[in-house]
Amino acid sequence: MKTVFIICIIIVIIVLLLSLLTTRKAYQYKHTVDPIKKPVNNQETQEKEQEKPTQNQ
């Protein structure tokens, strides 16, 4: 019974250490944001403007 208890404690400690290491590494990760693409030609701009609802009421 004593050996089973010791093995369980060791497993709990290993899982705790692995979760702490994983969380620490996740917080160190640097996220980046892709830049917004601008329309290439005037036709794309006109199409987007036509999709917008007008508020002249």
Automatic annotation (TrEMBL):
Species: Metabacillus endolithicus
Region Disordered, residue ranges: 38-57
InterPro entries assigned to the protein according to its UniProt record, in alphabetical order: YtzI-like
Protein name: YtzI protein
Biased composition (Basic and acidic residues): 45-57
